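Protocol step 4 of 6: record predicted structures for both targets in the notebook before any analysis. Target 1:
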Amino acid sequence: MKDGTYQKTEAGFIPIIAKSGYWVGVEETTLDAIELGETFGAWTDSTGFLWIDKTVRVSDLSNALLLAKTFSQKAIYDVANQKEMEVV
């Protein structure tokens, strides 16, 4: 699986293409635990480990950062600029 954001459907995992907002991880999970209709982010760290997080898309940066801090996330994903943003 490539890094990105997906939704589980009856046909499998389909990529979600968004043009704005911020993806925020809210819970680490596994592919087996993802239920139909749920959205998740997949990303590979520098050691090659594939992380799977249930995610939500937030339109406002300050709310995205607040949510990320609430769920102890190290970064969020800026959709418009296609890059990770560190949570400080």
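Target 2:
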Amino acid sequence: MRTHPPFPGVLSRAGAIPFLLLSVLLPACSSSWNPLDLVNPPDVEQPPAAEPPVGSQPPDEPEPPDGELAPTGTLEVSVVGSDAAFSLGYFVLGYFDGVQSPRAVRGTGAITRIPNLPPGSHSVVLRASARNCAADDSGPRPVSIVGGETSQIGFTISCSAAFGFVAGVYERTSYYAPSVEFHGTLSERYVIDADGSFRLQFDSGRYGSFAYPGGLSLISTGGSETLFSLSFFANNGQWSATASLRGNCLVVEYNTDMWLSDFEHGEYCRVGEGS
């Protein structure tokens, strides 16, 4: 019985032939094959890209005369009007470039600037947005634009007494307790003029007296109430409210922007006549 492997350290005749073949072939293969050759192939120089024909290049853009564009001008429009006129704004209709359709620019203050206008002779018309307001000079006004300069033109907007029936002083009837506690003492009122201008006035024990101006526009009439829209100048024209006239009192609801700025919906009742 064998107690150890046969022929330890010595190959049998049957295994000697394969061993001899491997001993001959492996050195020959190892000199020309490297497994890393498949991972890092040798650099191959790419042929240079063909240059496009000379005639295929896009032509250069033509330069303007003298190498620069003619300078444009600016028009400054000054407007005199009431809070009612400015609350809903106005439109400057400019007939520039000799075109039939005007260029409309909206304004909401005493000065409106219109830049980048072509030099030359043009005309301007002003149109008020409030129904009871209009420019004193409703026809086209000539204006000359000079390149690189600011030209000026002025208009006046007048508003009729279309809101005389609601004109007066309306005092707030009640407050939330936290508001009074915050201000110390507080009173609040609307002062409305016959042309639709108004001021929302506050007297605060903490901040003193201040006001927010604006203008009315009529939404609807009929039945027991008249409905108005209130447009404020403050906060870039984003503040507005609706007001319902019921007898001698205005019931006011503010929009989301004003409500989030701590304006409270409420009732304001007439305590005096307006102008």
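Step 5 preliminary note on target 2. Residues 175 and 252 are 13 Å apart (CA to CA). The mean pLDDT is 80.
Proceed to step 6 after PI sign-off.
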